[in-house]
Amino acid sequence: MNPLTSSVFRTETMTVPGGTETIVRGGRDLFPLLPQALHGVRRIGVLGWGPQGSAQAQNLRDSLAGTEVIVSVGLRPGSRSADDARAHGFTEDNGTLGDWLAVAADSDLVILVIADAALAAEHEKIFAVLKPGATIGLSHGFLLGHLQSIGSDFPAGHPVIAVCPKGMGDSVRRLYQQGATVNGAGINASIAVHADPDGHATDRALAWSIGLGSPYTFATTLADEYRSDIVGERAILLGAVHGLVEALYRHFVIAGADPVTAYERSTESITGPIARTISDSGLAAVRAATGDEDLFDRAYSAAYRPARDLVAEIYDEVAEGTELRSVILAEQRLATRPMSPIAGSPMWSHSAQAHARRDSAPTVVDPLTAGLFVATMTAQVDEFAVRGHAWSEIVNESVIEAVDSLLPYMHARDVAYMVDNCSRTARLGTRRWGPRFQAAYEQIALPRVDAPADQALVKQFLDNPAHEALAAAAKLRPTVDISVERPTTT
User: Fold this and answer.
1) 106 is an annotated ligand-binding site residue
2) Which residues contact 343 (CB under 8 A, 6 or more apart)?
3) Which Gene3D superfamilies is this protein grouped with (predicted)?
């Protein structure tokens, strides 16, 4: 892993299990240092206007306001996103909106936030027009995995960096805006320096991360980033959550609960009080919050091993390139055969009723649901630790991103909405692995819940070093309200 050093920003040492990590704390007081840290970058081109592209372009523009650094957006001809970009102040008239290849050719830092499969198909066109020495910026390591799979590489002579926010674009923008009143409010980010021919790549990556509003930035590698990110979205960040709530809803209905109550005990419990408890007090606090530690322990014991097996399988598929190839192959099918929405499942018809009862009958931490969910989250944490990921990456990709970004969004709009409206890579992964998790819960975990808890496994959870790592990361987090408003319709 590349060491995190900077000639501009002050680094800090964070104590984690087994050692220390070097991180950089963010804050709006650092914005005046951004032009210096960018080392000669005068034009930043953001290619793409999806959730990450729009959030990052706006945040960087706002952070660099009053400097000589210009942030522009590049879109492909006929893009349906052009009107929205214009509505947010990026226009042809002021020179901040243009053709994607023209913007790439004119920029000193080119941030590639178009869809993964599209980037895999079009990267050669982008590379061909780059200025000599222009910095290539990524927010995901997917392209590295693709290039390795085809025996290719990034063009020589160009710095290659990544800044990867640990949250969806909605959170990147919304929490940045909260930073106007809470210094440092935002979403944590990892950075990776893959190529550094001019010696300034780390400073540029840190400037980009701080400009996005990241409260703290930690170092990783592009390979570790895409593995943890793609595995995470197929497991505890989305795929496993989808499979879990579907399994639990059916379980509660079969046991005699009415559909709205079943929805509350499954979906609402996870996206509401369980997520808030972890965010505020950590993983172990969920066990105490259930009011039934024995049922939590039995559920945890029943779910941990099947969840761990699935996370390990997903990790192998990602590391070997199988999952990446499946995304690229799907792009060809989806050109004429769009994905069907998953919101047609019967449980989602009760979402509005459950949301309407929140004020009059607040959802509590259901011990069965909590045990299964925390077991799955811990299984991902443990698998990432065995695979050698840094603790900052482990807790951000497995816990913080879930409870401070994705689950609050799902609480506002429901899990089905998230599955149907996230990135194509995540949607494909959730559709592939969500049913696998659902089957594991229904066929393996839930039938074993009545068995006595595995006390050795429970002790491993209570003694897990992740608690220490999560507490260390929590000390760097600004106090902000991470809730999102519920829309009038979904």
Assistant:
1) no
2) 416, 417, 419, 420
3) N-(1-d-carboxylethyl)-l-norvaline Dehydrogenase, domain 2 (1.10.1040.10), NAD(P)-binding Rossmann-like Domain (3.40.50.720)
